TrEMBL record:
Belongs to the TPP enzyme family. One of its GO terms (biological process) is small molecule metabolic process. Residues 12-115 form the Thiamine pyrophosphate enzyme N-terminal TPP-binding domain. Signal peptide: none annotated. It holds the Pfam family TPP_enzyme_C. This is Acetolactate synthase large subunit. GO terms for molecular function: acetolactate synthase activity; flavin adenine dinucleotide binding; thiamine pyrophosphate binding. Keywords: Thiamine pyrophosphate. It comes from the Bacteria. NCBIfam families: PRK07586.1 (NF005760). CDD domains: TPP_BFDC, TPP_PYR_POX_like. Gene3D superfamilies: 3.40.50.970. Residues 381-520 form the Thiamine pyrophosphate enzyme TPP-binding domain.
Length: 524
């Protein structure tokens, strides 16, 4: 085994941990610390190479680390305060786990002797972390916390996924053993297994009855283009999973549609296929169970052909297929429809289409618009090149923090957030982080003053006739949220648009200036 250079042998545990993170390639920490983490905060203060970014709620911290990892392709660290702080961040860690984002959690813990007294904030941190983590370890007095940190980074990077390191306060403040750290292993080659490759080649060659279902890293530009060309040559279909961590799309890239979210639509699409080749994707299942509707979205008897496991590199397998099969031309994406007149009142489709039309080159789009922004995906297919990030695990409140993390990872690129009003309230504090860090984020709030998706879900479960009590559970208009006031209260410039012309003007204005800008799109 090779080793990195050793760190300062006189360091305390917190300093040793910080040095180990830096030597392992982690130089960004999203934090919401408390008393037990003060020594780590002190270590960060003395190490300017580590950029430390404060979030005012733990869901902002974990969501921002997710956005950073998706765009940087390497982990950021989080710093969370004890079990309750971790618990507050779990919903966006759930989304990060589903996105297979590399991420290292550092969770403070009571000093070892004090923990035995069962103080008020004591909790079972290891059990809280386990469901959302691929790797969990507790640093121990006398152990090498630097070695623990290096292994946490390796676990997060190589899986990829979430690694959680629990840091007792006495480990942080006590002298730490020094010595060399384990060096990062070279990335393993993701050569496809021969039997998988042969089965996939047979399935694709069979033509129109085969679907290539892409997910994960298969939706980066190069592998997606190869998959589209294989499909074009053979007549096979190609789709992306419904919810994806990151898709590279726009002019010159593969115009790949997504499997529809509604069960009624997806079960219209998939029955035409006899074989589904999974390339970085999971088998397609319904997001929820509905009375009288299937859980598996593909028909009985459809052959599932796994080629690339979720989270693995897809390009080697697709290049190997390209050596065996013919490649066709990539079809052109449909152009966006004509723009609406400037005085047209905003509808969800008009608002989403205008964002697609005005998108700056090389933008990063974060989509948590849920129902209102559905038109964006199709209308931006032939637009400027951009990366498209989605809610992956269904736990709402990811959009604003995901945008913050993506902007930290990609300075110089504009982040454009399509954000539903209801889900934005889950992590509103991310606006403050965007303002404090002067992040180039344009947030478009689709202000329909309701949980619109729940209205559709009521119909999906067969409850189409309901009264005022149920309706109030889906309404946000009594009182109405004032998004411009909320944004300004967090230090973000904001304006309101009610027509197509107003929204277009505000989008252009936001892209010309630096820093965050919020637009409340008032939907009729």
């Amino acid at each position: 085994m090779s080793f990195m250079s050793s760190t300062d042998n006189s360091a305390n545990g917190a300093q040793r941990l910080c040095d180990a993170l830096l030597e392992s390639g982690v130089d960004t920490c999203f934090a919401n610390p408390g008393t037990s983490e003060m020594h780590f905060v002190g270590a960060l203060d003395a190490r300017p190479r580590m950029r430390c970014i404060l979030g005012l709620a733990e869901g902002v911290v974990t969501g921002a680390a997710d956005g950073y990892g998706r765009m940087a392709d390497r982990p950021a660290a989080t710093l969370l305060h004890l079990g309750p702080g971790l618990a507050n961040g779990l919903s966006n860690l759930h989304n990060a786990r589903r996105a297979r984002t590399p991420l290292v959690n550092v969770v403070g813990e009571h000093a070892t002797d004090h923990l035995a007294l069962d103080p008020p904030l004591a909790s079972d941190i290891d059990s809280l972390a386990a469901p959302m983590s691929n790797w969990v370890r507790r640093a121990v007095p006398g152990g090498d916390v630097g070695h623990d940190a290096a292994e946490a980074v390796a676990a997060a990077r190589d899986t990829p996924g979430i690694a959680t390191l629990v840091l007792p306060a006495d480990v942080a403040w006590s002298p730490a053993p020094g010595g060399p750290l384990p060096a990062a292993a070279p990335p393993a080659a993701d050569a496809p297994a021969g039997d998988r490759l042969a089965a996939a080649a047979r399935a694709i060659a069979a033509g129109p009855g085969t679907l290539l279902l892409l997910g994960g890293r298969a939706l980066r530009a190069a592998p997606a283009l190869l998959a589209q060309r294989l499909a074009a040559a053979t007549g096979a279909g190609v789709l992306a999973e419904t919810f994806n961590a990151r898709i590279e799309r726009g002019t010159g890239r593969a115009p790949i549609a997504k499997l529809p979210y509604p069960v009624a639509l997806s079960t219209e699409v998939l029955p035409r296929y006899e074989r589904i080749v999974l390339i970085g994707a999971e088998r397609p299942v319904a997001f929820f169970a509905y009375p009288g509707k299937p859980g598996l979205l593909y028909p009985e008897g459809c052959e599932i052909v796994p080629l690339v496991d979720p989270g693995s590199e897809a390009l080697p397998a697709l290049e190997a297929l390209a050596e065996r099969l013919a490649l066709g031309d990539v079809p052109a994406a449909a152009p966006a429809p004509e723009p609406p007149p400037d005085d047209a009142p905003l509808t969800p489709d008009i608002a989403a289409g205008l964002v697609a039309r005005h998108l700056p080159e090389d933008a990063v789009v974060v989509d948590e618009s849920v129902t209102s922004g559905r038109a964006f995906f199709a209308e931006s297919m032939a637009g400027p090149r951009h990366d498209y990030l989605q809610l992956t695990g269904g736990s709402i409140g990811i959009g604003l923090p995901l945008s913050a993390g993506a902007a930290v990872a990609c300075p110089g690129r504009r982040v454009v957030t399509l954000q539903a009003d209801g889900s934005a309230m889950y992590s509103l504090q991310a606006l403050w982080t965007q303002a404090r860090e002067r992040l180039d984020v344009t947030t478009v709030i689709f202000s329909n003053r309701s949980y619109a998706i729940l209205k559709g879900e009521m119909a999906n479960v067969g409850l189409e006739n309901y009264g005022d009590a149920a309706a109030r559970m889906m309404s946000l208009d009594d009182p109405a949220l004032d998004w411009c006031a909320l944004a300004r209260g967090h230090g973000v410039e904001a304006a309101r648009a009610a027509t197509a012309g107003q929204l277009g003007d505000l989008l252009r204005q936001s892209f010309r200036q630096g820093g965050p800008f919020l637009i409340e799109a008032c939907l009729g």
